[in-house]
Each structure stands twice: as C-alpha cells, then as structure tokens.
TrEMBL record:
<dbReference type="InterPro" id="IPR006342">
    <property type="entry name" value="FkbM_mtfrase"/>
</dbReference>
<dbReference type="InterPro" id="IPR053188">
    <property type="entry name" value="FkbM_Methyltransferase"/>
</dbReference>
<dbReference type="Pfam" id="PF05050">
    <property type="entry name" value="Methyltransf_21"/>
</dbReference>
<protein>
    <submittedName>
        <fullName>FkbM family methyltransferase</fullName>
    </submittedName>
</protein>
<keyword id="KW-0489">Methyltransferase</keyword>
<dbReference type="GO" id="GO:0008168">
    <property type="term" value="F:methyltransferase activity"/>
</dbReference>
<dbReference type="InterPro" id="IPR029063">
    <property type="entry name" value="SAM-dependent_MTases_sf"/>
</dbReference>
<dbReference type="GO" id="GO:0032259">
    <property type="term" value="P:methylation"/>
</dbReference>
<keyword id="KW-0808">Transferase</keyword>
<feature type="domain" description="Methyltransferase FkbM">
    <location>
        <begin position="96"/>
        <end position="237"/>
    </location>
</feature>
C-alpha cells in the first residue's frame, strides 16, 4: 500500500538521483516557460520572497533554477511554519542547519533581539548565502557557519556534494548519478558552535540534512537541556536515516526523550505522535518508506500558541 506522500516524494527522489538528464530537462522547460529564454545571461540570480527579502541563487544549478521557477517557495510547509513561529514565538535564537540557498533562514523579518545562526556544509553555496545575508534587514544579527554538523567534534567525515541538485548533498549516502564531489570535512557539534548562555532562552530550529538529522540533533543535547523551551522542524526520510546506520526506533526514542513529536500525515495535516515506534508511523502512512516532516516541541503550549490544528 502506498500513499500520495510516499509515492510523490519517492518519485521525485528517483528522478533527481536516477534520471538527472530528465530532471534537468524538466527544470529547463520550467525556466523557458517563465523567462522565455534559456540564455543564462538573461536568467536572474535573485528572487524577491513574499516577505520582500532577497534570495540569491546559482541560476545554472538545478535547485537554484527550481527556486527561480517557484519564486523561492519549494518548501511551503517549512516556510509557513518558520515565518509563523518567528512572529508568534519571538525566539531568542534561531538555528537553521542545512541552509542550502537560505529559503528558510532568509524568509522572514526577525525581532531585533533574535540571534540568527545558519549552518551549511556545502561551500559551493556560500557566495549566494553571503549575498542574501548582506541584503537582509537583520544582517547584523545573522551568523553563517560553513561547517559539518554532527554528534561529535573533530571526526574526519566524507561529505558528498551533489553538483546536479544541491539539496541532496549529504554524508549519509552517495547519489546514484556520477555528478558528485567527495570532500573530507571535520565534524563539529552545534553545542560547540553556539557559545552563548542559553539558560532561560527560547530557541527555534530547523534541521534538513538528508538523513543525517539524528547525528545533528545528538550534537544539540546541551541546548535541549539548558534552554527554557525549543521548537523545531526536521525532515524525516526513513530510507536516508537507515543508510546512516541509525535504527529508526532508536532515533524516535531519542526524540521522545526531549520533545513531544508532531507529524505531517498523508493528508498534510498535523498529528500528535501517541507512540514512538516506527511501525506506528508505517501503519499511519500505509507504507514501508516514509518521507515527511516532524515538528518537535519541548512544551506543548508552543504548538497551541502557533494556532496549528492538531488532529
């Protein structure tokens, strides 16, 4: 049995990894429809987001082009959650792990007291991230780290930069196509990066690192334990998580130790996880493979304050 969520996302992932030429054709077709040209000199490298903030992208790279086609809204679920959470929660810190081009971190205007941290391992994206930062109204509050976030400091890791689709660069697996650059990086925990005292602070975070989420979150335990409250949004891809060697039930048990978990179900509605076993998720989605998003909250009142409808 499959669902529209598992089927749709599986199809897209297979397209990206197994049929890069077909995917590139579709992207180019979208660019042609929107801009009436494929001349790279006539295709813009900046997007005006709904917030009026500017997002810079590489207009020659497929994910950059996808952002151009969609006006910077390829992850509407995440963007809507993030903008709403910043406005309502008014967090002391925000942490975006897996910035990519920055459609999340640069999507909104932040309160003047908020410290904003972005973490991106792919050095090829830094020029665009830096330009977007300089154009952002809160630029003095934003710090960008070009680091590989993990659960331990100082380990040598292989990071695979996907030159076909930057959004699938990862340490958890190697894409099926051959447009990959392998680089060696040193790992570091988010706890080591965030030096400030977070006692009595509220933190909003997002982690989207293609299956490596468990390692990143384990490297944030100090923040979980010391802060007043935390609200997070993470990608959950069971296939990618399993490729890292992490047991999904172990990962779910780790999350429930710190958070109440909310899941976007097959109808794109939010459900509070009453159980932490992977089998329960498989039954919910009617699929062995699950690709969705989770909301993590240390305090259920955070969810109530956002006005989210939870089934």
């Amino acid at each position: 049995m499959t669902t529209k969520v598992s089927t749709r996302k599986t199809f897209l992932l297979k397209m990206w990894e197994d049929y890069p030429r077909a995917w590139k054709f579709l992207i180019n077709f979208g660019i042609l429809l929107k801009y009436k040209t494929l001349n790279i000199n006539k295709i813009p490298n900046r997007i005006v987001l709904p917030s009026s903030n500017i997002l810079y992208v590489n207009s020659e790279e497929n994910r950059g082009r996808a952002l151009l086609i969609s006006d910077g809204m390829t992850q509407k679920r995440l963007t809507q959650f993030w903008c709403n959470a910043v406005e309502v929660m008014r967090p002391d810190l925000t942490i975006d792990v897996g910035v990519n081009y920055g459609e999340c971190i640069f999507s909104t205007i932040y309160p003047k007291h908020t410290k904003i941290y972005g973490v991106e391992a792919n050095r090829n994206l830094l020029p665009y991230i830096k330009k977007s930062k300089e154009a952002h109204p809160n630029k003095s509050q934003i710090t960008i780290f070009n680091i590989f976030a993990a659960d331990k400091d100082g380990e040598e890791k292989s990071f695979y930069v996907d030159k076909h689709w930057s959004g699938t660069s990862s340490a958890s697996y190697v894409p099926a196509h051959n447009m990959v650059e392998k680089v060696q990086v040193k790992s570091i925990t988010i706890d080591s990066v965030i030096k400030e005292n977070v006692i009595d602070k509220t933190i909003l975070f997002k982690v989207d690192v293609e299956g490596y989420e468990a390692f990143v979150l384990k490297g944030m335990k100090g923040l979980f334990e010391k802060s007043a409250s935390m609200l997070g949004f993470i990608e959950f891809n069971s296939e990618y998580i399993e490729k890292t060697g992490i047991g999904i039930n172990d990962f779910m048990a780790f999350l429930t130790n710190y958070f109440t978990i909310y899941i976007y179900n097959k109808n794109d509605r939010i459900v509070k996880a009453s159980h932490s076993k992977y089998e329960d998720l498989q039954n919910m989605f009617g699929s062995n493979y699950i690709h969705t998003d989770l909301i993590l909250a240390t305090d259920e009142k955070l969810i109530d304050s956002l006005g989210l409808t939870v089934e």
